[in-house]
Amino acid sequence: MFSKTFSALLLTALSVSASPALQARQGSGIASYYYPDGGFGACGNVLQNGDFIVALGTDTWAGGAHCGQTINVQYQGRSIQVTVQDLCEGCAARGANGLDLSQGAMAALDPNYINDGIITVTWSFA
């Protein structure tokens, strides 16, 4: 009986202490875009170009702990919500907090994305 109670308390304490670290990440960073083309993302799901998804940079990836979480992304007065579904290993070259948005998400955020290529956005976990 004691071991079950102690185990439950320990698991609760660990999950409470880990949650703020996973939710706290936010900031500004460089966003680029990519075409998933029906391939599998690092979170294990099939991804389409029009999906509102994001690939996190290795500095934010946390071993996939954010898979399925929603992120708010803002750019020049526009705001979208995207779901973490992939890992962007190349985002680290663009600095901390870099993101790779699916083509559909980038188009909604920046109608001139083809010409702009990469943009500086602000983002936070929802």
TrEMBL record:
Q: Which CDD domains match?
A: DPBB_RlpA_EXP_N-like
Q: Where is the RlpA-like protein double-psi beta-barrel domain?
A: 28-122
Source species, domain of life: Eukaryota
Q: Which InterPro entries match?
A: Expansin_CellWall, RlpA-like_DPBB, RlpA-like_sf
Q: Which residues form the signal peptide?
A: 1-18
> What keywords tag this UniProt record?
Signal
Protein name, UniProt field: RlpA-like protein double-psi beta-barrel domain-containing protein
